[in-house]
Known about the structure:
Three copies of one chain form a homotrimer. By secondary structure, chain A is of the alpha/beta class. The first copy, chain A, has helices at 16-31, 63-71, 89-100, 106-115, 124-130, 146-154; strands at 6-11, 36-40, 119-123, 142-144, 156-161. Chain A contains six helices and five strands. Chains in contact: A-B, A-C, B-C.
Amino acid sequence: MTKMSKKTIIVFSGDYDRMMAAFIIANGAAAMDDEVTMFFTFWGLSALRKTQKPAGVKSDNSFLQNMFGGMLPKHAEKLGLSKFNFGGAGRFMMKKVMKSENVMTVAELIETAQEQGIKMIACTMSMDVLGITKEELIDGIEYAGVATYLGEADEANVNLFI
Amino acid sequence: MTKMSKKTIIVFSGDYDRMMAAFIIANGAAAMDDEVTMFFTFWGLSALRKTQKPAGVKSDNSFLQNMFGGMLPKHAEKLGLSKFNFGGAGRFMMKKVMKSENVMTVAELIETAQEQGIKMIACTMSMDVLGITKEELIDGIEYAGVATYLGEADEANVNLFI
Amino acid sequence: MTKMSKKTIIVFSGDYDRMMAAFIIANGAAAMDDEVTMFFTFWGLSALRKTQKPAGVKSDNSFLQNMFGGMLPKHAEKLGLSKFNFGGAGRFMMKKVMKSENVMTVAELIETAQEQGIKMIACTMSMDVLGITKEELIDGIEYAGVATYLGEADEANVNLFI
């Protein structure tokens, strides 16, 4: 019997800890040869931002769109914890423990996800609302909307919203 | 091959942005001819409140139940963002951007959901705990508990908790 | 036709209200003879802490690990609400209403879950990161990682992340 074993994860949250959970599940499934699609929407898009902001890129964003974009974490390692963040101190401490326990950071988890061929999709509607442009996001990702997500979810046996 | 393509979404969160995500997925699936059931529980019930509070309705709620009911957002468009809400300013700004990008508000998404025949169920146990009465909620919804949810989920191929 | 009706729930959140939702769904499914596995990770682990801290247990935790452990709620009934907690006053009030409405507390829901044979798994990686030891957690639970979760999810027809 061939078993359907595709997984999809909607990454809505921009919390460092929830992002870890999402990528640990995704990477775990990919390591077990499952096909995995991650759909990044709203605050989850922050994780896909490039470490270096592209210079000299003009956007036709409105003032309000730029304001949201400006408030969002600059890249994955700047995300806050959902609890005990204390302006970044909590994340700093958690990352120290993670290092001593050989647990990967979100940046490392993203790199592994790309190496394992996990399909990462940025939600274009959310990008419009939050004023995030393609130039700001990492390479190797796809751009689509809810219909694409639903198509992927229909082929999967585990679908999570994180 | 007939494929099972029913979807269920538990709407637990009362955040404006998570509510948008829930209804965009639900409406997207319904537009693709999927059967969709949304189960509103805890803070998610806020979205189903009528814009106008019914006058002259007496309830046998206790003082504590009324207190929770009084703290909850008055209706869908009064929900706060999960991030950058700033006492409603963040939601106000996001809605301005949404309008300019032709993205529907939650109130419009709910209307569309009802037009598309999406089954919306209010969790009766949560209503008791939060002191929410049927008179406060919009028309055209159903009332049930966890057993009904589980029955719907057993028939679906995508089940999300938002 | 024998229908697959196993359920899995990842309990990531440590909020009292989300914990209620998780256990009400889990216990509801178990009451309908479904097999249920709950996987407790990150802040969700707080719910599994013993009411009485074990005395005289030495751990090889680092200072930082002990700090996270020290900040976490002491046991299930000390968890806060995701909204309107007000330093515990909100949870206190909600529990008063729950009692008058005959709604079970999280501690009672956990007891019922164990009586119904629900499999409760603590995520060992999260335990390392948060400095939580086996001695601190209640009896009758299992310990495993993401691969075990994925194995369980592959056998289930409803998989939620709470």
